[in-house]
Specification:
Layout: E1 14-19, H1 27-40, E2 45-51, H2 63-66, E3 70-71, E4 77-78, H3 81-89, E5 98-100, H4 101-113, H5 124-143, E6 147-152, H6 162-174, E7 178-185, E8 188-189, E9 194-195, H7 198-209, E10 216-221, H8 227-237, E11 244-248, H9 256-261, H10 265-273, H11 283-293, E12 297-305, H12 315-327, E13 330-338, H13 339-344, H14 351-354, E14 361-364, H15 373-386, E15 390-393, H16 395-407, E16 415-416, E17 426-430, E18 445-453, H17 458-463, E19 467-474, E20 476-478, H18 483-488, E21 491-496, E22 503-508, E23 514-517, H19 532-540
Parallel strand pairs: 1-6, 1-7, 2-5, 2-6, 7-10, 10-11, 12-13, 12-14, 14-15, 15-23, 16-17
Antiparallel strand pairs: 3-4, 8-9, 17-20, 18-19, 18-21, 21-22, 22-23
């Protein structure tokens, strides 16, 4: 009798989260909520995102198309969903947590070019799917977690997503504890006043066509989902009724796991994984959610940037600002200020300019390129002169130094090498290993680096420690040739690299809060653990 062709795989526990009907349903929130509930039940969790697009990573993608680029501790440029994962499960993820079709194909082709397949014919199955499977199992092994949650980007039925579905099929056949969670949409027809289940049925049928039977269904809707609808979906999709969950639109993403747990979601997931069922401890998370809705004061925070038409472009910054507000019983309202429009019309009648008067504080986040920088310089000047709290992140901190050099230090031509390669007064210039000809993708200063903070500074008041590690994503740095003149005129270099060579935090002492960081503090913020600089900034915003 021939031996089975199935190769038995190490017995990791893996949850795959897929989406059907349409995109943007919230697969990332479902993945993050599942992880949060399992972690609070006492199991260790890691999460991975598999993205079907052909970019090697999101690092060179426009924020208008794909939202922010989230950076991990080890310097991986990743999809914004990894930010959701980290904020929910409070674990630092890594390069193993992000995989794209582009990276898979580039690695397989490179291996073929180097003779790694000994002249064999390279095909989607088994070579591409095999590489994807390696990435999944390597992430599970590297994390050492009790369970790995894997979100598949895109929508079931997408051509580019088919190899990922094949990997799910193979692993469900090869492993004992592989769970499929499928998120679908229940559209509401206003004319008939009802939710329709047919798109969900068809989406599950597409999964079954790939030989995948979902174990759990999560159904999204903007309207109330009745028990009768859940029973109908269970019957037509072949999923036990207890494993069909409503996911009605919530007034906070952080409330989602609590709503799931009202229907014993974590118990079903644990049973499917073969775990001993434990109740998650949700007291602290519930308190945090309560604080969101019990905030006693609304505070307007101006977010001055050039991607103001898409919230996702600054997602981690927005969530960090909100978390700082939660800790101070303040409800943060974002006032969007288009820095490009602001710079083009610098009169007081400019609609963007009038928004400053509504704001208790201004945040200028990171970015690249010259477009919109004049407006950001105006924002920094306004906050400095009018004692309005200001938080500058990466480019936002460089803008602080440029504005200060122009208007306080008497250097009107001060600028950044990024904006003008031929400028004489480069307050900001290339890092030592950077130049104009370097490849764009994956070559920035990326990931966590140490910083030493000087005592008796605003930065120290925020962190209450001298030694920190924060994540970076930049190609340019402050020019030490101008360090002395900046400090002589009142700008404090309050944080540096351990060797003192790189300026990491700058501030003005005679100001309620005027602080900028070369790093991206937003990536380490958690909804129940606000990041230090954001917390300090929100404290100062009255």
């Amino acid at each position: 009798m021939p031996k089975s062709s199935l190769k038995k795989t190490v017995n990791h526990r893996i949850i795959f989260v897929t989406g059907g009907v349409c995109s943007s349903l919230g697969k990332g929130i479902v993945s993050a909520s599942t992880g949060m509930l399992l972690k609070n039940a006492g199991y260790s969790v890691s999460i991975q995102k598999l993205d079907p697009y052909l970019n090697v990573d999101p690092g060179t993608m426009s924020p208008f198309q794909h939202g922010e680029v989230f950076v991990t501790e080890d310097g991986a440029e990743t999809d914004l969903d990894l930010g959701h994962y980290e904020r929910f499960i409070d674990e630092n993820l890594s390069k193993y947590s992000t995989v794209t079709t582009g990276r898979i194909y580039s690695e397989v082709i490179e291996k073929e070019r180097n003779g790694g397949y000994a002249g064999g014919t390279i095909q989607v199955v088994p070579h591409i799917t095999g590489r994807i499977k390696e990435k999944v199992l390597k992430a599970a092994k590297h994390s050492g977690a009790d369970v790995l949650i894997v979100e598949i980007g895109g929508t079931v039925g997408d051509i580019e997503g088919e190899p990922f579905l094949e990997v799910i099929r193979q692993l469900k056949a090869e492993m004992k504890h592989v769970v499929s969670i499928h998120l679908t949409l229940l559209p509401y027809l206003r004319a008939s006043g009802e939710l329709k289940t047919k798109p969900t049925q068809l989406s599950v049928r597409q999964l079954r066509a790939a030989a995948i039977q979902p174990d759990i269904l999560v159904c999204r809707a903007d309207e109330h989902i009745s028990e009768a609808i859940l029973e109908k979906i269970a019957r037509f999709c072949g999923v036990e009724e207890a494993a069909v969950f409503p996911a009605e639109t919530a007034n906070s993403i952080y409330k989602v796991p609590l709503l799931f747990e009202e229907r014993n979601y974590s118990e079903i997931v644990q049973q499917k994984l073969g775990f001993e069922v434990k109740s998650p401890k949700l007291t602290e998370w519930s308190k945090m959610v309560d604080s969101i809705f019990s905030a006693t004061k609304e505070v307007n925070i101006g977010l001055c940037g050039k991607y103001t038409d898409l919230d996702d472009a600054y997602l981690s910054v927005i969530e960090a600002l909100k978390a700082g507000g939660y800790a101070e019983s303040k409800k943060v309202k974002i006032i969007w200020i288009d820095s490009e429009k602001l710079g083009k019309d610098q009169t007081q009648e400019n609609e963007e300019w009038t928004k400053f008067k509504e704001c208790a504080g201004i945040c200028v986040p990171g970015g690249f390129g010259h477009r919109g920088t004049e407006g950001k310089i105006m924002a920094a000047k306004y906050c400095r002169e009018n004692k309005i709290p200001y938080l500058g992140i990466c480019l936002g901190s460089q803008i602080m130094a440029i504005e200060f050099a122009q208007n306080v230090c008497g250097l009107p031509d001060a600028t950044s090498q990024e904006f003008d390669e031929l400028a004489q007064t480069k307050i900001v210039h290339y890092l030592p290993d950077q130049n104009a000809d370097i490849q764009r993708g994956g070559t920035l200063r990326l990931g966590a680096y140490p910083c030493v903070i000087e005592k008796n500074t605003k930065a120290f008041d925020c962190y209450n420690t001298e030694h920190i590690d924060e994540r970076h994503r930049h190609r340019y740095e402050f020019n030490n040739e101008y360090r002395e003149i900046l400090e002589k005129n009142g700008m404090k270099i309050s944080g540096t690299s351990p060797d003192g060579e790189l300026m990491e935090i700058i501030e003005i002492t005679d100001h309620p809060f005027y602080v900028g960081s070369q790093f991206h503090p937003e990536f380490k913020s958690r909804p129940n653990k606000p990041q230090a600089l954001f917390h300090g900034f929100l404290k100062a915003c009255k």
